[in-house]
């Protein structure tokens, strides 16, 4: 202990005076992150134990009390759209309608949709210049159609918005046929405004796609479940369920005077609306027993482009910092967690800066730390242990061999985490320079269906 205290006292001796605050703040951020993760893991474990006692049969669920509206934004999705819509048609719910928003596609998306004969499917065709303005604009168009046409006339006319569940499914999404399980969250609480599915990657055949699958598993199993009791589990876009009455309560007006729940120009519209629902007093939940599968990216270049967009969206929602911290509907612990959650890009950028400075100082021998076994162990614990703990919790297995295998996988996942770390800086630069345009990621061809009778 004396050695540790002495090390901390003289931790930054010899460094330039201007750099010392950078490292102390980074150390506080790292320690705070460890505490935050530990709290969420404990809470997620408690939530999982409670979830195991929930009803699991469709007959015991309240799904028939709801109208399920599946919204699928689609722009040049000829590769995956038939697969996604076909799986939505197989979702086991009593009252269902599917709204596909063809957002100005110039490939075969429209023709493929026209060839799907189902009374449950409606295609909303957007044309330029209104089309291709962003996912928020496409979803807002579908929201207006839902109120005007679906609930305004016909079979579902006058359906109570409190009993309408709007599900967002990306055009590569493969939603669980048992998505009806999400109904139990809405039935259990009238203030449940959103439920997020567990996201999986179905084309995980390499290091990058496998890591993306594990990344989603950790996020859903730790961060989302850990926040459920507070009601602050956020939305993740694909496989997101929202109560229509909740969406109606957070509507905004865009520059053209059109009303809709989603704010235009938001690169992570799911994160943005999830936070605003919480501000309005609605609760967010994570469905640990409902999955949605989507395509992962095998190309590092494409992955960087996607994650930069997501990171820039996280920089954008910093404007919600004040309402989140000042949200008196939440307890002190929940508000502290919301603060930490929103500060994630800033914390990542600061800690990354300290790492870069450390490499520079060591390379030029501007500092010469006195290393010991204890110090090396502590360095490893604080830099690697949080990520490893998250992976072990998400991939919980019994037995020494599975645990050792997961430890190995966790270290590979840490490599992936550092590999994509620079996107936080690229996203910041794009945000500072006002760059919000994005090239669409090309879908990967689907594996052919097995021939009938094949083993």
Summary?
The chain is α/β, with parallel strands linked by helices and 455 residues long. The protein has helices at 2-9, 20-51, 81-89, 109-114, 135-150, 183-188, 207-227, 244-249, 269-279, 300-316, 321-325, 332-342, 344-363, 373-394, 400-419, 423-432, and strands at residues 67-74, 95-103, 121-126, 164-168, 174-175, 192-201, 240-243, 252-253, 259-260, 283-294.
Oligomer status: single chain
Distance between the termini: 62 Å
Instruction: Estimate what percentage of residues fall within beta strands.
Output: 5-15%
User: What's the CATH topology name of the domain at 62-299?
Assistant: Spore Coat Polysaccharide Biosynthesis Protein SpsA, Chain A
Radius of gyration: 23 Å
| Overall shape | globular
What's the helix count? 16
Q: For this structure, what is the CATH class of the domain at 62-299?
A: Alpha Beta
**How are helices and strands ordered from N to C?**
HHEHEHEHEEHEHEHEEHEHHHHHHH
What portion of residues is helical? 40-55%
What are the low-pLDDT stretches, counting only 5+ consecutive residues below 50? 449-455
Instruction: State the total count of DSSP E strands.
Output: 10
CATH architecture of the domain at 62-299: Alpha-Beta Complex
How would a crystallographer describe the biggest sheet?
Answer: 8 strands, mixed
- Helix- and strand-based class? alpha/beta
Please name the fourth-level CATH homologous superfamily of the domain at 62-299: Spore Coat Polysaccharide Biosynthesis Protein SpsA, Chain A
Average pLDDT, all residues: 90
What is the spatial order of strands in the main beta sheet?
Answer: 3-2-1-4-7-6-10-5
Transmembrane segments: 20-42, 339-367, 373-393, 400-421
Protein name: Glycosyltransferase
Enzyme class: transferase
Membrane topology: Multi-pass membrane protein
